[in-house]
Design a protein that fits this description.
This protein is mostly helical and about 325 residues long. It has a domain of about 90 residues. The chain is about 35% helix and about 0% strand. The chain has 14 helices and two strands, in the order H-H-H-H-H-H-H-H-H-H-H-H-E-H-E-H. The chain has a two-stranded antiparallel ribbon. It is elongated. The N and C termini lie far apart (about 75 Å). Bound molecules: heme C (9 copies). The site of one heme C (HEC) has 20 residues, from helix 8 and helix 10.
Length: about 325
């Protein structure tokens, strides 16, 4: 092997090594699941003591408790069912150390000094500081198994992959409801998706800002096995939940173009009428030759002016059962 070839070979290996490392580095580190699980154990020297023991000594968290017990999740620890499936320690970890030093005397002394007794909350799991994967794992300990069917794809969903956790959308102690009300879902999503706010303000748009429909009418924020987080398997199925008349099948289909609503429409908003990606006639001219007023459309002899609004005549653009004059489907009728 001559020297030149050796130098090239060396350079090649060097470049591959540097590039190789770059790609590996840029891949997000994901820890083995057991390491996340360990983060959720809490202090091993603490014991579980139950909600009553936790809270009866200082009443610091009475409001949180009231709200929690009134919520669907908290109802699971109701006195009546005797099924304490969920209590404070399910999430916060064992609490014995936190109240260790709270004695009736201390509570009295604090009260005399005009303050409320606080527990040692630093002995609990620091939930806010956990990596997002661990935060979600904590919720999924219970929610993967129970009826939350639409969480089955959580881990493959784009939200999980991008470090969004359950906490981002469900504020456990915000009040009685753990679910964002339908009318507030939009603003919750737009906090992170500002581009979409602009899209819904374009001249033609789905009336999301007007609160006639909302993001979760089309998206499943919990993750799907496909791109786009859509609530149905395909875009078409999602759209035809509301626009059923565009579903077909028609005697004269617009080839299989009509299966791809996004070939012509933007989902959120557009500067063009009818949510069109491109205005007419350019929309149609992407795939067709235009024809003119005087020309025979079929022979394409062009005389006269080109049409600007193809759908003035081809008004059944999504498909039709009625043939045109030539007996073909030209979407005229
Ligand atoms: C389903 C899990 C879960 C359960 C059950 C739960 N919590 Fe929490 N709690 C959280 C999470 C998550 C946070 C922190 C997230 C946040 O504040 O945004 C938190 C925060 C808190 C805080 C700090 C609040 C603040 O404003 O910083 C207190 C106090 C608290 N919880 C008390 C309780 C009490 C008391 C109970 C039982 C009645 C309870 N929690 C049950 C998940 C839970
Ligand atoms: C110890 C088990 C357990 C843990 C941990 C848990 N949940 Fe729950 N959760 C339940 C049960 C049980 C219900 C009530 C039954 C149901 O709706 O499936 C519930 C209900 C809910 C609901 C529905 C409330 C409604 O009004 O329909 C939401 C939202 C929820 N949990 C979110 C969370 C989040 C977010 C976390 C993590 C911070 C979490 N849960 C952790 C057991 C748990
Ligand atoms: C991007 C925001 C977002 C994230 C992240 C998120 N949720 Fe939700 N979740 C919602 C919305 C919005 C609803 C209301 C349901 C609806 O409108 O379809 C909901 C509903 C629920 C419900 C009750 C209804 C049902 O579908 O059974 C449960 C339980 C729940 N979420 C648990 C979780 C858990 C557990 C996680 C984390 C693994 C999580 N969510 C992450 C937005 C989110
Ligand atoms: C805490 C921030 C946050 C919140 C809240 C949030 N998202 Fe996301 N979302 C993200 C991130 C990060 C991505 C990853 C891609 C990106 O940067 O756009 C994403 C991606 C998406 C995608 C793109 C899917 C794809 O395959 O390209 C959709 C759709 C989406 N989110 C819908 C929603 C909806 C609907 C809500 C409200 C229920 C919501 N998001 C709330 C952060 C958030
Ligand atoms: C009428 C149905 C519909 C509504 C309502 C809707 N979306 Fe979408 N969204 C879609 C479709 C369809 C796509 C494109 C999916 C694809 O091409 O695979 C999409 C794509 C997205 C994407 C990916 C990036 C992009 O723009 O292509 C994000 C992020 C997103 N939507 C967020 C939101 C948010 C946030 C809301 C509410 C404020 C919302 N969507 C409301 C149908 C909808
Ligand atoms: C949850 C119901 C719902 C879903 C799903 C839905 N739409 Fe709509 N769509 C509406 C409503 C409501 C309007 C407004 C009708 C009105 O103002 O009279 C609308 C209007 C439209 C318009 C006319 C806009 C204009 O400027 O006049 C088009 C085009 C459209 N939708 C296409 C789609 C496409 C493509 C999809 C799939 C990505 C889709 N829609 C999914 C409810 C829905
Ligand atoms: C080949 C391009 C094209 C495709 C593909 C397409 N559309 Fe359209 N769509 C149009 C045009 C052009 C208009 C405006 C019609 C007019 O001006 O008469 C329109 C109008 C609409 C309207 C509003 C007016 C009305 O007739 O109600 C809805 C809703 C709509 N389309 C839904 C859909 C859905 C759902 C799909 C997918 C199944 C789809 N479109 C696929 C071109 C297309
Ligand atoms: C994404 C490409 C695409 C777009 C955009 C598109 N079409 Fe088509 N169109 C097709 C295909 C493919 C066929 C089937 C052609 C064939 O069978 O020879 C077709 C068929 C037709 C036919 C019937 C032609 C025949 O030979 O029977 C008419 C008429 C038509 N389109 C009009 C329109 C109009 C008007 C628009 C704009 C609103 C439009 N198309 C937008 C791809 C498209
Ligand atoms: C004034 C009414 C009218 C307008 C406007 C119009 N067309 Fe047509 N088009 C027709 C008629 C009529 C036929 C032939 C119908 C038949 O075969 O019976 C036709 C046929 C077609 C065909 C199928 C024959 C061929 O040439 O391959 C296509 C594709 C087509 N038009 C596309 C367009 C496009 C793109 C536009 C907008 C630039 C447009 N048309 C505007 C009336 C119109």
């Amino acid at each position: 092997m001559n020297t030149l070839r050796k130098i090239f070979l060396f350079l090649f290996i060097l470049i591959m090594a540097v590039y190789g490392c770059e790609t590996i580095k840029s891949v997000k580190q994901i820890m083995p699941i057991k390491e996340y699980e360990q983060l959720l154990l809490g202090r091993l020297d603490a014991n579980y003591i139950g909600t009553n023991n936790c809270l009866s000594s200082c009443h610091y968290h009475d409001k949180i408790r009231r709200d929690f017990e009134a919520s669907t999740m908290g109802a699971q620890m109701s006195e009546k069912t005797h099924l304490p499936l969920v209590n404070c320690e399910s999430c916060h970890g064992p609490g014995s150390l936190a109240i260790e030093e709270i004695t009736p005397e201390k509570v009295e002394k604090d009260a005399a000094a005009g303050k409320q007794t606080a527990c040692k909350n630093e002995t609990f799991i620091n939930l806010k500081a956990l990596p997002p994967q661990a935060q979600s794992l904590m919720c999924l300990k219970c929610h993967a198994e129970n009826a939350s069917f639409n969480l089955h794809n959580w881990n493959t969903g784009i939200h999980a992959v991008n470090d969004v956790s359950c906490y981002n959308c469900h504020n456990i102690h915000a009040g009685v409801s753990l679910i964002t009300k339908r009318k507030d879902v939009r603003d919750m999503c737009l906090k992170c998706h500002q581009t979409q706010a602009a899209e819904f303000s374009l001249p033609s748009h789905h009336p999301v800002m007007e609160k006639k429909l909302t993001c979760t009418d089309c998206h499943n924020p919990h993750g799907t096995s496909k791109e786009g987080l859509l609530i149905e398997d395909t875009v078409k199925e999602t759209c035809t939940r509301c626009h059923g008349e565009k579903e077909g099948p028609y005697a004269f289909e617009h080839a299989d173009v009509n299966d791809e609503c996004m070939a012509c429409h933007s989902p959120h908003g557009s500067v063009n009428n009818n949510l069109l990606k491109v205005s007419e006639p350019f929309l149609c001219l992407q795939c067709h030759h235009g024809h003119t007023t005087t020309s025979d459309a079929v022979t394409k002899k062009s005389k006269g002016a080109y049409y600007t609004r193809c759908t003035d005549c081809h008004s059944q653009i999504h498909g039709t059962d009625i043939p045109s004059a030539s007996g073909k489907g030209r979407f005229i009728n």
